[in-house]
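Section 4.2 – Deliverable D4.2 (structural model, holo form)

The reporting period included a commitment to supply a predicted holo structure for the target in complex with magnesium ion. Inputs used:
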Amino acid sequence: MLEIKNLCAEIDGKPILNGLNLSMARGEVHAIMGPNGAGKSTLAKVLAGHPAYNVTCGEVWFKGQDLLDMEPEERARLGLFMSFQYPLEIAGVTNRQFFEAALQALGKEASITQEAEALEISPAFLDRNLNEGFSGGEKKKNEILQMALFKPDLAILDETDSGLDIDAMRIVAKGVNALRTSDNALLIITHYQRLLDYIKPDFVHVLAGGKIEKTGGPELALWLEEKGYA
Ligand code: ADP
Ligand code: MG
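Output (structure tokens):
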């Protein structure tokens, strides 16, 4: 479903990704780990189509289509979803209004209240301004709620576990696991192996030096936790 070949990307003329290869099939969960500043969020943002990043070489194919050739909203419509490390706060737009607009733009229907309930999000929370004054945990739960509503083919979760206490992480993981099917795929970017205790990956990759330096199974995450990246 996703095929990244020899991807290079830079920001402000500074090369970050340098010949990255990654392939993902439907039904698979991949985790990307790696030291701070390795380029994990850069990879996520390049895939989402963030305009600040300049792709200097390589190809990305998503569901057989040339992803790099598409506008961010076309990528979303094709079934790509991104949960950002630092979700935006928007004043004057409630959570519910944002979800309704996004569902409409994607041509999808879903029960916002029902999906929220499943993630233990109260209805009152839906009427607050998008991400405004949300705690770290609330922002992350809200990102998973979007994923539940949009039902993407490929969801990329960037550091969804950061800032979560153990209870919030369990709820988030439960929500994510409930959305897994043999038809969709998940790319989890994380610093810590603990999230992977709850969301079992099929493959674990280490991003270092601008590329995937190492690939293994879940045991690689445990090994990294013990030995570090050095
Ligand atoms: P990670 O998510 O793995 O911690 P990032 O992808 O966020 O790493 O960052 C990779 C590198 O790109 C870092 O060295 C970071 O400082 C640099 N970088 C990210 N955004 C910018 C920017 N807007 N301008 C300049 N450098 C940036
Ligand atoms: Mg990051």
